[in-house]
Structure prediction request, 248 residues.
Amino acid sequence: MNLGEPIATGNTAKIYLNDHKIFKIYKDYLPPTESAMEAAKQRFAHSCGLPVPKVIEITKVNNNQVLIMEYIKGKTLGDLLFENLEMAEYYMSKSIDIQQQIHHHEGNDLQPITAKWRRQIEGSHILEVETKSLILAKLKLMPNETRLCHGDYHLFNLVQADDKVWIIDWVDAGAGDVRADICRSYLLYLENHQELADLYLNIYCSKTGDTKEAILEWMPIIAAARLSENDSPENKDKLLKIINRYIG
Prediction:
């Protein structure tokens, strides 16, 4: 099958648009269950009544796992925000409203989001042994909730199509504490856009009454797990500084 050129490339997969469908082709180093696991998470979110693209099929192309999904034609809220920075507060507020809709649902059928983070931290070759032990000890003390969490929630995973916003990329979804999911989003913004990170956290706390302190309790854990996902030396330095700030 000739899918043409990818429309996007990530750490774990290349994304193609073909025949009005999205083909997510996974890299061959991933476990053979990767596509099925992501499909199950996306189907679960769809079953909750959330605006999530339908999973069409799990298959193989040239021996690579492929997840075929419904194509949503539109622009991400991230693209829309950077096209009109004066609307930043509007788009960020809209994204938080949608994130709260996700958190309204229980995620009991999904693996805890902290399970992956624990594995990433335990397997880290960057963290010092003492730092790793402190972070893992802290993780044991954190709230163990079962709310549906997206796990990779930000403006570029929200697609505006006509008058509806769709939530994409559910590979990191799981059950967990809402504040952990918020902290993960905050960190993703913080890596590249301090102003957006601050805007996100300020609006979220204003809407919910949650405190920044309660959310940022998760920061060293999430930053430590994030180390294994990020190949950029610059970002690794940023993450280590964050960890030392909260643990040191």
